[in-house]
Fold:
Amino acid sequence: MLPLAVAQAPASWAANPTAPYGLAAPAADGTITGTVLDEKGAGLPGVTVVLKGTTTGTSTDANGGFTLQITAGASAPTLVISYVGYVKQEIAVGSQSTFTVRLAPDTQALNEVVVVGYGTQKRSDVTGSVVSVRQDRLEKIPVSNVAQALAGAVAGVDVLTGSAVPGAQPRIQIRGARSISASTDPYLVVDGLPFPGTLNDINTNDIASIEVLKDASSTAIYGTRGSNGVILITTKRGKTGTPEVRYNGYGGPEYLVNKLHPLDGPAYAQKYLDFAAQRGFTPTQPLPNSSEVVNLQAGKTVDWMKEIGQQGSIQDHNVSMSGGNDNVKYFVSGEFFNQRGVLKGFQFRRYSLRSNIDANIKPWLRIGTSSFFSTSNDGGGRADLTLAQIASPYGNLTNPDGTYAIYPQLPELLLKNPMLGLTTKRENRVNQLVGTGYAEVDLPVEGLRYRLNGTYAYRPYRSAYYEGRAFGNLNGYAQLTNDERMNYTLENILSYNRNFGKHHVDVTALYSAQQNTYYTTTENASGFINDNIGYNGLGGGSLTPTIGSYSERRGLLSQMLRFNYNYDSRYLFTATARRDGSSVFGANADKYGVFPSVALGWNVANEAFLKDNSILNVLKLRFSYGTTGNEAINPYQTITGLAQLQYAYAGVTAVGLRANSIGNSSLTWEHTTSANYAVDFGVLKNRITGTVEYYDAKTSNLLLARQIPIITGYNSILDNVGSVRNQGIEATLTTANVQTPNFTWETSLNFSAVRNRVTQIFGTGADDIGSNLFIGKPLYGIYTYVKTGVWQQGEDVSKTDPGAKPGDLKFADINGDGKIDSNDRQYQGTALPDWQGGITNTLTYKGLSLRVFLQTVQGVLRNNGNLNFVDLGGRVNLPQEIGYWTPQNLSQDRPGLNFTNPRGYGYPSDASFTRLKDVTLSYSVPATLTEKWHLGNLSVYVSGRNLYTWTKWVGWDPEQGYTVGNGTGNGGTNFPNVRSIVGGLSVSLR
Structure:
């Protein structure tokens, strides 16, 4: 392929280069003309032709022709010719005024190298379901970890954000829930080796690429670790050339996305009167507590939501340096991330350092290391959002001396001051130190290579807490926890990669060993004479301290063989088998499991009968089938556990041991067997590309606590008793809608739908209502009564619900027996979505770029704890958005204040939503300016996240589990979603 495809000149022209051959002397007016052809010689319409370093440009007409005016006096002008699906070309104008340019198809998308397990492959040769995450999902978005950036952006990947507390780690599910009691988190691999930390530890600026492995063909290579999918992260490495120093940073405010507003003073007082009327008593005072009455009479109120709130903020600063020569390459980076929560006391701070070095020692020997360190802390006393929601607006924030009032509604002693958490001392620090190294040797046989990988990780954790007199604890209480996690992995990899004409063979063999060790101690003390020392002096507690410790170790030995074959990049075949042996299994189970898979692929577009097709550019069919495993149990769950027991013997207290949990030495692997069918396509010069996949996954030997006769001394035993089936469809589509010299518009869309069903429980086809498992229905089901309204005054409740009173919820008599009881419950839905997706539109105009991303999750049903409100004798507040029934306000949705919810109705509600997830506007300074300033690049941007949500959900956020209740404890789970708006800068020096 010639870089400049000007029609071949005759030999006579070489002797006389000034002789005309489709060229002419420059026109006096500076006009140049030309024709752009495709690889078959046909004119290409809509091709962008611009003068490099300027905004002057045009597009080719229907026949591929173009005319462009050059500004008089332009020095050394260069044409930049680009079109979607073709290789961009740059042509020096020189003295020419007429051009004939032939563009070559851009095979980069097909020849793009993607990371797969234990190696790489060309995109066109991949047979499994491997999705690469677009780099722009990791840049210019204000997130604390990678998982948050993936939400809604990858088909089949569900990011479950249970809490927005700074530093929270979202859960990730790939292709739905596959286990009842075991973890469904995917396996995390960084730079080819298992990563012992979490995504919270990883600096997103260090990431070069992310691949998500979803089907059995791509994940079976990881055996027991691959049943829930695999996330492969590759960090940046040095490149040969001039050293580059880069800074990426952003910062800005955060706000609550949505608010539930507690009743104000008058409305709260009216609520108490309404409660008294519904309960049938006449109150002796206008409010339940005397201190409230004093403040009512004085007109003194407290806005508890304002008191616990603060201006949130988020910032991230990253500096990296990379470079190298032919022998040594390096990449070094450092990051500081800080998030200040929108509620007082909440924060998350992280520092990280990374050093990646690669060296060519000999032509046949390469070595490299990666060192990574991070430290994070989300400590500090915290205000309590739950208490702030239910505290009386007529309560007392402080005492006369300015200290926080412990009980703001005296003589009420049930509810404490929402601000008391700020008086506690709290430390929660995690350190992560990971060191990896590799040595790669080219063996004497051509294409044969040996690689040794090794990694060691040390993860110490410290949690310390103290509460004292200011919190209302007159004895003081301290708790100190220290634990350590140590992990090592050694991998021996032998690979053979050769081409034999049109035949390509790639064989990988592995032998590896892994060991994880965990140790923890927890100490509690109380009875401190004062609050000065706290958790730094546990020995100062006069009451008997409690001490606990625990340790565990698990090991894994693995062997793997993978065989890849393709013929002429048309016919593709992959076979994989991995054998894992785990130490967690008992004496009566096979500690080893074998996990095979096979995959086929056909690049139909490479066939001769389609090579001349001008519409269809890519067509690839894929099929895979295989089995993956899940250890699913922790060490020592196969053996009976013992606990200490104090007893009296001969009048003396002695300590003995008793069995407290029964083991099951026959526990074995959870197995997932799945089939995957897929088609990849590209049409219209690859202006439209996409993938459609269907999968059918069956997981068996699911672990569940099986009830056993109490006469055994135990209530239950862990056993392999169930199976689940997931069937789903996934689709991705990318379109280049508009492409002109100054304006482009691209759309990227993803869609996924999963049908999850329980197919077997305890070896039978019967439902297990107690475990919330129903044959033929999804996991996480809602099985409850059907609400039909609210009982009103004058309605006869004697027949169907004789215990009900006006203002109580009314339920349907499902079985028609004339009464409401547990037999009237029915399956109503699941917390698993019916379908979800995302759409990204990217518009560019000259140096400006606007990216808008919308996420949607539909068909979710969740119990809404915000509506499950118990008034506790009229003494607590409630949100205005919830409301309540009164004889004057004849609500058919909300119950009265006297309703105690005796049936435990959970208020199942539609938690579907569509969210404007993020919008980013950026500007890249033209290269003509950055070159003058001696910069590699310079761009500025403004980005907003969680900007708006459309939903029917009543509460803080449909995606989260936060609920308003009468309990306390804001220790990290009850934190509402936030909106972030930041400004950022990216600049590099060369």
Remarks:
- The chain has nine helices and 46 strands.
